[in-house]
Structure to design on (127 residues):
């Protein structure tokens, strides 16, 4: 069974950068969508970025466009979220998730479409 494990969260000052990693382990299908979601304290989980392993297409939430970049190292089965110019509102837990056997061209940031979730990694950007 496919599992995802996040790492890389930390406390970082505003304006700085951080890279999160999501390793996919277990039985991995040929194609899937991988996404990052953010849950700020007291708020619901929201999509940040996703990537389709079949098409390579990506999608970003408006709040992170131009600041965050999602990428994948297929040899390592690892997806990264490079976060730059971090802001206090980026504080929260970041979850990696996968939609198994996704063969579409464009992934989505809809929570209910994803099957496997990691435990999350904490990012804190003090104000």
């Amino acid at each position: 069974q496919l599992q995802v494990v996040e790492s890389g969260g930390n406390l970082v000052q505003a304006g700085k950068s951080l890279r999160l990693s999501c390793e996919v382990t277990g039985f991995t299908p040929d194609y899937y969508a991988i996404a990052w979601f953010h849950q700020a304290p007291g708020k619901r989980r929201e999509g940040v970025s996703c990537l389709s392993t079949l098409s390579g297409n990506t999608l970003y939430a408006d709040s992170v466009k131009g600041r965050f970049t999602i990428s994948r190292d297929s040899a390592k089965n690892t997806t990264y979220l490079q976060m730059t110019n971090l802001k206090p509102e980026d504080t929260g837990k970041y979850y990696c998730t996968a939609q198994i056997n996704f063969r579409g061209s464009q992934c989505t940031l809809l929570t209910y479409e994803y099957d496997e979730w990691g435990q999350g990694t904490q990012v804190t950007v003090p104000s």
The first strand starts at residue 3 and ends at 7. The radius of gyration is 14 Å. Residues 48 and 54 are 19 Å apart (CA to CA).
